[in-house]
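pinning this so it doesn't scroll away 📌
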Amino acid sequence: MKRLSILIILLIMQFAILPLASARDFDWLNNLNAKAEADSSGYRASLATRFRIGETEVKTVIGNVQMPSDAYMILRLGELSHRPVGDVLNVYQANRKRGWGAMARSLGIKPGSREFHDLKRGHDLNGGMISEGKQSSANGKGKSKNKNKGKK
């Protein structure tokens, strides 16, 4: 009985703490919201250019989300998951309280995958990925974990 109680407490803690921990992964959204609110027409134009969609689709997405940065996330999740924007909006409407990580997982983007890390890293509007003021490599190359590469 004692083990069962401990297991239940651990499960409750996991589901209570996990969303809070993953929320920090997307802190860059606050900065994107501030920029979008300062120049809403410029933000809409940036979304249209970046995702190669029309102004009408941008307005539709922005009109169906709570914050301007949510529109970017909807479009980016659609791109990364290879799903239509309408599907992603439906997932957003049903799961927005669970967080972006949970939404990404429900769209097939696995935690730890390159796509998931790209999503957490920041936005790529107007000149590259932004994460704590650092630009990411556009070609996606990074340090190799295979230290024996080329050796026999």
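📌 and the second one:
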Amino acid sequence: MDSPNAVWLDAWHVNPSANKDYALLDGLRGIAILLVVACHLLYVNPLSSPILRFAVGIFSAGFWGVRVFFTLSGLLISWPFWKRKVKGATKAVPPGYGWRRFWKIYPPLVLSLLVLTPVYIILSHDWSYLGFAIRWLFGAPLIMPVNGKLNPVMWSLVVEAQFYIVLPLLFVCLKRVPARACLWIISLVFLIVPTGWRWFNLTRGVSFTLYPEINVHFPSLLDYFYFGILLGGLESMGILKKSWAKLGDYGFALLAMALLATSWLSLHPIIANTLQEEILGWFVKIASGFLLCYIADPQHPRSRLLSQPWLRWCGIISYEWYLFHQPAFLWARSIFGPSGGNLVKYAMIQGGSLMVGLIVGAVVYRYFSLPILKYGRAQNSRLTEPGLKKNPTASNA
């Protein structure tokens, strides 16, 4: 840990088995989950004053936090691939790659379905939720649209899983390509192909949807991983310079601008919503890429700020909190009804559901996910790492 004050975090932290352990990346996860939670937490009467709607709209723009998660995944998941590529490993895919993704993602997802689905059924008297849960358990949303009524935040898991599958396939296909050439090829594939497909869909009036069905239109959202993949390769090849850390400050500024602009444009649209979202999405992509540049200097003042224990803790439990937070908000509003302008009732409903989601997420991580992660790390450590041999292509890195 970076500071004596973070000793308590040891009980929550699992050292990565295939990556460098940057504390600041936990902090960036913390910011991302706080943005997402804020997006779902606050709501406002559409008849309220424009100033109030603008202020709440800034928090509602926190949905961009999911895109920050994607960029982080681009860095963290591609890192061990680039490390092996640069060293000239005989096998392109790191040992235990698939199992690491499985132990991290699938058990908490299954638990959330087992816990949440019965509550959905009890509150709605709608047994169709059982069918939706079964589809998620068997991974059907990866290949076909699924109804968005059951915990719609799970849409991002579809995009993440698609990335987990596509990335190793590209590295295998480009196994004999020199590292630097591979860096530009893979990065550009993740930039151009998804962007081009999304734009083509938009010309036909087709776009990403959550309702009535979750449909991400593979591979149209994979470009959000682009900057993470690029920076992972640059860092592994020693191209990332310490001075690049200052770009992180521009990342914070761009992200703040995107939140403000999203709220303002929701009240005063200038162009078509799809085009506005596309432009704002590029602001968020660039901002997320700049924020990752803090890894170039872990001692940078903002890097150390991101390494604060409380923020890292939010990042460490972020996946479990993500899975459970939105149902808590929705059910609280359904059970207790509208606040009717009563600020005390509003604060109690929102604050209570916020704490319930946070506590459930923390408990699930600490006593369910963490033991599984440790088990997975132990199993992975027993795998024999294929020897790294001198590879002529690696000399170009």
